[in-house]
Amino acid sequence: MYIAARSEEKAEHAIVRMEQEGMGEHPGRLVWLPIDLTDPHRARAAAEWFLKRESRLDILGTWGLKDRPYHCVFLRGWG
User: Fold this and answer.
1) 27 Cβ contact list (under 8 Å, min separation 6)
2) Alpha-carbon distance 14 to 68, whole Å?
3) Is the pLDDT of residue 62 over 80?
4) Is residue 52 classed as helix, strand or coil in its secondary structure?
5) Which of 24, 33, 53, 78 could potentially form a cystine with 73 if both were Cys, beta carbons 3.0 to 4.6 Å apart?
6) Confidence (pLDDT) at 43
7) Count of CB atoms within 10 A of residue 5's CB?
C-alpha cells in the first residue's frame, strides 16, 4: 500500500502509527509515495514514479486539495 503525501516526515509518522496499531492478518507493506497535488508537474512526476513500480492502481483517495480555494487550483494550472 502506498501512502501518498508531500511530506516524507508526515508519511513516515503515519506508516509507523499504522504499523503499531496493527493492520490486520495480512498487512503487506506501506511505502511513501512522494506527491504534491498543488502542482501539475509534480503530480505528473509522482504518477510516473508510481507507474515505474506498479502496473495498476486499485484505489486512490485524496484529501490534499480539500482546503484549497478553487481559484488557487485554477491559477496553478489545474482548471
Assistant:
1) 19
2) 22
3) no
4) helix
5) 78
6) 86
7) 19
Phi-psi region of 18 (alpha: psi -120 to 50; beta: other; left: phi over 0): alpha
Q: Band of the pLDDT at 78, cuts 50, 70, 90? A: very low
Dmax over Cα atoms in the chain, in whole Å? 45
Q: Residue type at 4?
A: A
Cell of 10: 508526515
Q: Is the pLDDT of residue 55 over 80?
A: yes
Phi and psi torsions of 16, nearest 5°: -60, -45
Q: pLDDT tens across 2-34, in order?
A: 888 888 998 899 888 888 888 767 667 888 888
Neighbours of 52 (CB within 10 A): 7
- The domain spans of the chain are 2-75
Q: What is the mean pLDDT of the chain?
A: 77
